[in-house]
């Protein structure tokens, strides 16, 4: 990027798949743009478990009409990282990595975008920041211990250890099965009375491991306290104290509401915390500021995925072009 250029027609906040899709659409429309990403390229995908397989087929993860060819119908994390990297670089998308946006403030005709490294001005701002950066905390004593993580990466680390996995959905199922297969003694704590949204090829595997007692599962259970060598579970039958070396808390994530509120986007006051936007144009209550991707769902993080929010890019650019 030419560092002397600081004024753009469009600035896109977030360099994930939807941010890249917005960049492709902006580029196709012939508008000047800059993508700002606080981490590495497709930072959220990079932080997914190393061995993760997507639920979606590869064609549903395509952006900008660029084919996504994978070895199997459902691509893996490494394949997705490779695909989005090739899309970004082959199209020479104007993107600045490891540059966090700190604020967006009105600036006469447009907005001043203040990052950790520079200041820019833009006529239009697209926010495609996802929801993977801030974990939903359990708010229990001991949650800040080094043994507790809200991000699961590689099962080998837990070989031979006593591991508590908290959660009932895909991430928890993958963590429980993979660490057990690497020799961990795994306990699963599920808040409700049954397992939740789990990939159809994974759920029977987990249920079989639970039924044969290879993985101990506690349903209708929450975490009461985490200690250095044990965890206290609050079960339907009373408190249970189990020995423990590590806690993998797959309790979910949430958008950065503080950032959205800071720049002036209205957020509903109910538990869903939906940000305000026009579903036809994706424009927020702020003129010329748009939302794209999973950030639109607030706490309802199962509404939007890559496959059904990639269309946001074209909606937004159509609106911007009509204004120009």
UniProtKB/TrEMBL annotation:
Identify this protein by name.
Answer: Uncharacterized protein
> Care to name a GO molecular-function term for this sequence?
flavin adenine dinucleotide binding
Organism equals: Solitalea longa
InterPro entries, per this entry? Answer: Auxin_biosynth/cation_transpt, Bdr, FAD/NAD-bd_sf
Q: Domain of life of the organism in this record?
A: Bacteria
- Record's keyword terms, sorted: Oxidoreductase
One Pfam family here? Pyr_redox_3
Q: What is this organism's lineage?
A: Bacteria, Pseudomonadati, Bacteroidota, Sphingobacteriia, Sphingobacteriales
